[in-house]
Design a protein that fits this description.
It contains 7 helices and no strands. It has 152 residues and is an all-alpha fold. Helix 2 runs antiparallel to helix 3, helix 3 packs antiparallel against helix 4 and helix 6 packs antiparallel against helix 7.
Length: 152
């Protein structure tokens, strides 16, 4: 477990971030820092719906951000998509970050983690498909055996 990627935000912290965001939204203007902090909290949530909302807020914020803010948005877009198991998107974002900062250690670690997850889930997916195919073949064999016995 890596705290940079796996730690979840405390519920009370997320509630406070949401309250501040909603107050500013009701006031008519949400600051970039408030939107980023709320999106950051959502991306760190253990709940997929929260993470998706955080990713959407970051995508909305990205074109309005300064260069430095964009770096943080792109990193958390990569992390959010990683946490959603949207590995292709996560990899696109982390590659964008590493294109600008090739030695970014967080980005390099996240890229390795994304690739490892893609390999693991790819193998897991292949194992599931193989297991289903084996099950279908076994069932077809039993069905064929039953039919041939019924004819004799």
């Amino acid at each position: 477990m890596d705290p940079d990627f796996d730690d979840a935000v405390a519920v009370e912290d997320l509630v406070a971030l949401e309250r501040r965001y909603e107050e500013q939204r009701r006031g008519g203007a949400v600051s970039r820092s408030c939107q980023f902090e709320y999106a950051w909290g959502l991306v760190r949530s253990p709940y997929g719906a929260d993470v998706r909302k955080g990713v959407a807020l970051l995508q909305e914020l990205l074109p309005k951000s300064t260069r430095e803010e964009q770096r943080d948005c792109v990193f958390y877009l990569a992390l959010g998509n990683y946490r959603l198991k949207e590995y292709e998107r996560a990899l696109e974002h982390v590659e964008r970050l590493l294109g600008a900062e090739p030695q970014n250690t967080q980005g390099l670690r996240l890229r390795r983690r994304i690739r490892d997850s893609m390999k693991r889930d790819g193998l897991l997916g292949a194992a599931i498909v193989g297991g289903v195919a084996l099950g279908v073949a076994g069932l077809a064999g039993l069905l064929g055996l039953a039919i041939s016995r019924a004819r004799h």
